[in-house]
Amino acid sequence: MHLVIPFAAAAGPQCQAALERLALPHLRTLLRTLRPSGALLGTEDDLSPLPERVLCQDAYPDGLIPWAALRAAALPLFKPSAAYGLVSPCHLVVHADHISMQDPASLDLSDADSQALMRAMQPYFLEDGLTLHWLDARTWLAEGEALRTLPTASLERVRGQSVDRWMPRQNAAKLLRRLQNEMQMLLYTHPINDARVARGAPMVNSFWLSGTGDLPPNPAPLLQATVLDALTAPALRDDALAWVQAWHALDAGPLAEMAVALKNNLAPGAAPITLTLCGSHRAQTWSQQPRSLWRLLLGTFNAPRPTSILKTL
Length: 313
Known about the structure:
The chain has helices spanning 13-17, 25-33, 50-55, 67-72, 111-127, 174-188, 191-198, 232-237, 240-252, 254-264, 293-302, 306-310; strands at 2-5, 35-41, 84-94, 99-102, 131-136, 139-143, 206-213, 226-227, 274-278, 282-287. It has 2 domains: 2-59 and 221-310, no CATH class; 67-213, no CATH class. It is globular and about 60 Å long. The chain has a 5-stranded mixed sheet. The protein has 12 helices and 10 strands. By secondary structure, the chain is of the alpha+beta class. The chain is 35% helix and 19% strand. The mean pLDDT is 88.
């Protein structure tokens, strides 16, 4: 059992101030018993956030974790030598001093509307050597050579956030910037958007490209872990009340279950129990390892409070 918790420590000032309000008895039990077994360091400017680096076992360069190619690999259309990217239809909001993205999940696109929009956009992508394939209403697959070495920011960096700092600026991204401009003009007058505006829904006026790259001949296996993302949305909004409530629910649910499993699986040869907490600057992993009774008791008395550990992430 391996649990990964993104935004265990949130960067927003309100969530930071709320750290001392956290009461996490089951997390405390786990941190007293498990032992630190590895860490990844990152920054708030990395294109690939720490949870994604954890899941791919930090096997790829920043901004080039090939999530699209990994998804394509399970499909009949997959070409081992091709490069791919994930295209997320979205709604961008222009403010006085920045551009932000409404969470794409809130668009509530139907399959039919998503497919119609992709068909309308396909010819423009084809002109630039990119082929679109429909995966689901929120995500399309782009295939093309231009995506092989183009680093892109994870969708988690921009959903509900400003996008300005995450727009690719390299020469190789000129194609992408031109496509985004063309799609804004195309989508502004699309009948599907006319219907959405008429019923008070936000327009689909752009797209975000992420997960670019290709698969190496022998790709590193993805980490077999369960991601608990209940903290993500409130952390991105810097909603301290919702973030604290989500943390307490995680502690009373999955972490309580893990603590019971740990208590029952201390015997040698049992499946190891592992926990990874991710913040903005550090992802720390704790694992079940053999310990003598004396070291177990010593760790119980000397273990720091969970909030102290969360402040280091």
